[in-house]
Design a protein that fits this description.
Chain lengths: 287, 268
């Protein structure tokens, strides 16, 4: 138990450090890294422009930068945003709760809608319900997140609803396929043949086989939600981490982007590990 | 449901033919400006009207489809190739090689790749040529979108390495490369093709998201994503329903892909 926990923790640390290093390296190798928009500002003196150029060049050696960053990180210093001129820690403290709130609402909505439609489609075998569910999920899975967000701005609807509608098709499709497989299992067919009611079959025979796999989807859905919230927050002007990432990318703000990569990696890996652990526990308990 | 599949195939074939024949079908070049009729409503001359710079919207849509629909498979091919290489090596060697490569896969999967893409794409120089921007955008999609497929291919290769026919082949003295060429690759073809087809709609949607955020293909070259960027004017300035046509085309094309993919998943 302790060994697997330690290994998990080590894996988490390795992934976080590698992910942030990858983010920093990708930024560095992309052409244009050493240039800054502020250099075009005609009101700045030549000394100021030279100072900006030097500051950019100081970050050019990515391994040197990253070593310094990791040392500061272990001392609790996340650095200062180059574009917003504010400590990254303060920026994250302001923005994280907003994104977490949006994510929680979006995920709740997506899971409720996705599972409700998957169960209804599978239980009632109605042509209309199947067509409507497939059509709804097909439309939202084919709509770019940014376009749906824009339509929600136009209709003055909440951004969380847009994010929820973008995540729900993945949960619906995965849930629907899982239910289809579970309803074809011999013990479920036997229970139905013996006259067990729809709800009894679902709760006592189908749910125990599908729940462990659905738990694994929880972690994946968090990763999907982070990807979806980025364009939604940008378009709907929600002051969350997604919008901050966009601003950082626009301003080529390396310290901010590296920290955001670290936070996103931490959230995603933790969610995946927790849902995996829950799935294993549930499978053991069921066995 | 069979009718739905036939409809999806028809839509995709039509879209592919339209994209390939854009040069012959389009009423004008994608950058040709009709300066006397900027922001015109649909008419017999311009079936979808013109944009603010007087460019024919239908022509831009046709050329945009060509860019998106032909380059998304290119990105999907690149991603599948990388996934086959990394996933295949991990599954073939197993042990610490697999653990290290799967850690790399986890790194790519844990940071949503749209995030990474935005990071890289945003730092590209502003004076990049439109043609280069197309190649860079779709190449980036390919280079960053391989991880999920690699995990599937790794699992497939690992299972195959434990199968009886591979054991027999190894027992009869098949070397590594011969084993891969004659036994592993032919049996993994289905998985590789499935990953390729699954990636195409994902890359079309991602390019559209980037285009909406102003990071996609550079002007004047159109793509479905960059055409969707015009929708921002619909919201802020004036309601012109014909500007939604690129969105409808995108939804129809991606839905057709999803319909076919979903059926294959269910059948599997």
């Amino acid at each position: 138990m302790l060994r697997s926990f330690s290994l998990g923790l080590l894996r988490l640390l390795a992934i976080m450090l590698l992910a942030s290093l990858l983010g920093a390296t990708l930024m560095r190798i992309a052409p244009g890294f050493t240039s800054d928009e502020q250099q075009l500002n005609s009101s700045l003196s030549s000394q100021s422009i030279q100072a900006i150029r030097q500051a950019r060049l100081a970050d050019a050696d990515i391994l040197h930068y990253y070593r310094g960053y990791v040392v500061s990180l272990f001392q609790g210093d996340l650095g200062v945003s180059q574009s917003l001129n504010q400590p990254v820690r303060d920026l994250l403290r302001e923005r994280l709760p907003v994104t977490l709130r949006s994510m929680a609402i979006a995920l709740l909505l997506a899971w409720f809608l996705g599972l409700a439609l998957a169960i209804t489609t599978q239980m009632f075998h109605s042509g209309f319900v199947t067509f409507a569910s497939e059509g709804l999920s097909g439309t939202f899975i084919s709509t770019p997140a940014a376009v749906l967000a824009l339509l929600f701005v136009l209709l003055r609807l909440p951004a969380e609803l847009a994010a929820g509608l973008l995540i729900f098709p993945k949960i619906y499709r995965y849930g629907h396929n899982l239910l289809q497989q579970s309803y074809a299992l011999p013990h479920v067919l036997t229970a139905r043949a013996k006259g067990a009611g729809r709800w009894r079959v679902l709760v006592w025979h189908v749910a125990p086989t599908t729940l462990p796999q659905l738990l694994a989807l929880v972690g994946v859905s968090i990763s999907i939600a982070i990807g979806v919230l980025l364009p939604v927050e940008v378009i709907c002007d929600v002051p969350g981490v997604g919008q901050l990432a966009w601003q950082a990318a626009e301003a080529r703000d390396l310290p901010l982007l590296v920290n955001l990569t670290l936070v996103v990696a931490f959230a995603t890996v933790c969610a995946t590990m927790l849902s995996d652990a829950a799935r294993r526990r549930f499978t053991r308990a069921a066995a | 449901m069979k009718a739905l599949r036939i409809a999806a195939v028809t839509v995709l074939v039509l879209a592919a033919l339209t994209a390939l024949g854009a040069h012959y079908i389009a009423p004008a070049g994608y950058e040709h400006q009709f300066r006397e009729t900027p922001a015109a409503a649909p008419s017999s001359h311009h079936l979808l009207g013109t944009d603010d710079l007087g460019r024919d919207r239908l022509a831009r849509l046709l050329y945009g489809m060509r860019v998106s629909l032909l380059l998304a498979p290119f990105a999907a091919g690149l991603a599948t190739l990388l996934a086959a290489l990394i996933g295949g090596i991990a599954g073939y060697w197993g042990g610490w090689v697999e653990r290290c490569l799967m850690l790399l896969v986890d790194v790519f999967l844990c940071v949503p790749w749209l995030f990474l893409l935005l990071t890289v794409r945003a730092v590209l120089p502003l004076n990049i040529s439109p043609e280069a921007s197309v190649v860079v955008t779709f190449a980036l999609l390919g280079f960053l979108g391989w991880a999920a497929s690699a995990r599937v291919i790794c699992a497939g290769t690992r299972d195959m390495m434990k199968s009886e026919f591979v054991w027999m082949a190894r027992a009869t003295g098949f070397s590594g490369l011969k084993l891969i060429r004659l036994h592993l690759l032919p049996n993994l073809r289905g998985t590789l093709l499935a990953q390729f087809w699954i990636s195409i709609p994902v890359f079309i949607i991602t390019e559209a998201n980037l285009g909406m955020l102003g990071l996609g293909v550079a002007e004047p070259l159109p793509s479905l994503g960059s055409l969707l960027g015009e929708l921002q004017h619909v919201v802020t300035l004036r309601p012109e329903p014909w500007q939604f046509v690129p969105l409808i085309v995108l939804i129809v094309v991606v839905s057709s892909f999803q319909t076919l993919l979903n059926k294959q998943e269910v059948r599997a």
